Amino acid sequence: MTTLTNTEAFPLSTAKGFTRLYGIPVVAIEEDCGTLLMLGHPDERSILAVTAAQYRLVYGQRILPGRELDELIPFGVKKTWARAVPRDGYCPWHTELTGTDAEHALPITLVSVDWLEAEDVAVQEQCPVCGRASRTSDIASTPGRSGYSRVRTCRHCHTRWPSVDAYRVSLYKLRKPGGIDPAACFGCGCTPAWTCSPGCQMSDNPPITQPLCTTCQAPHNATTWQALTDAGYASPASDEQRDRWLYTQALRGTHPTTAATAWTERRALVRCRALAATARDRGNA
Ligand SMILES: [Zn+2]
Ligand SMILES: [Zn+2]
Ligand SMILES: [Zn+2]
Description:
Helix content: 25-40%
Shape: elongated
Low-confidence stretches: 170-175
Order of helices and strands: EEEHEHHEEEEEEEEEHHHH
Radius of gyration: 25 Å
Bound molecules: zinc ion
Number of strands: 13
Strand order of the largest sheet: 1-2-3-7-5-6
């Protein structure tokens, strides 16, 4: 935000980047997107609804209840007037606060959201150990395949498993990790120069066609490795999340054939739920 005057100012209603939620144009501003700028002076209920919709539809997140949310309306909202001023670089315009009678001035509402607590919204999945529902996911690494992906952590028993990769339609995109070393371990990405644990080496006798380190090979015996490859682990037909699922389920003692069937069912169920959740989101904003 700037307070410099600029003769090329223009109305914020013509500025690029706004999304219309519940009929109110909104855009995240500031370097860390810590402020929502809404056009007009909406009432409290609309401010809360638009803020929640911005998190849900644009970020794929749910705002958590708590003191931060309670204090949003009394302390986090500023109603004022402003216009847009052009800027070079990554941001095509900035906001200039003005009096009510300045040229191109429009009523705006600034909502400080950077301290709100939020969590990723995921389509519901059941914990493979205790069966309780999980509705959130995170980005982390899980055994069985190198790289980062969506994972679930059960709130009740703390079991961690790779999330089925079907989500609500969201603007968030997971970046493809670039430049994976083909000589690195398939399971964890370690190399002789960058070992995953002290003394780890590349296996002389990997049970899969890709390189595997001794640390990733060790948890399973030859029979389990045979069952894993029979179930498609590390085959071109498998995908990353399925491989992670088969491997982590085998660590828990689930036979790969059983795990493969469970994955297919889980995937189908989550896809149905994702479609329903997306339809609901669209209807709600
Ligand atoms: Zn659980
Ligand atoms: Zn490894
Ligand atoms: Zn290793």
